[in-house]
Amino acid sequence: MNLDSLYSELTIPTKAKLALIVLDGLGDLAIVGQGEITPLEAARTPNLDAFVAQGCAQGRMIPVAQGITPGSGPGHLALFGYDPIEYQVGRGVIEALGLGVQLKAGDVAARANFCSLDPKGIIIDRRAGRISTDVCEELCGILSRGIKRAGPKGSEVEVIIQPGKEHRFVVVFRGEGLAGPLSSTDPNREGQPIAIAKPENEKSVAQVKTAKIVADFYKRALPLLAKHPRANGFLMRGIAHQPRIPLFQDRYQLKAACLAVYPMYKGLAQLVGMTKIEGPKTIAEQFERYLAEYDNYDFFFIHYKYTDKAGEDGNFEAKKKAIEDFDAALPILLRKKPDVIAITGDHSTPCAVKGHSWHPQPVLVHSALSGSDKLERFTETGSNMGSLGVFKAKYLIRLMQANARMFDKFGA
Amino acid sequence: MNLDSLYSELTIPTKAKLALIVLDGLGDLAIVGQGEITPLEAARTPNLDAFVAQGCAQGRMIPVAQGITPGSGPGHLALFGYDPIEYQVGRGVIEALGLGVQLKAGDVAARANFCSLDPKGIIIDRRAGRISTDVCEELCGILSRGIKRAGPKGSEVEVIIQPGKEHRFVVVFRGEGLAGPLSSTDPNREGQPIAIAKPENEKSVAQVKTAKIVADFYKRALPLLAKHPRANGFLMRGIAHQPRIPLFQDRYQLKAACLAVYPMYKGLAQLVGMTKIEGPKTIAEQFERYLAEYDNYDFFFIHYKYTDKAGEDGNFEAKKKAIEDFDAALPILLRKKPDVIAITGDHSTPCAVKGHSWHPQPVLVHSALSGSDKLERFTETGSNMGSLGVFKAKYLIRLMQANARMFDKFGA
Question: A89: which chain B residues are within 8 Å (Cβ-Cβ)?
Answer without folding.
Answer: 411
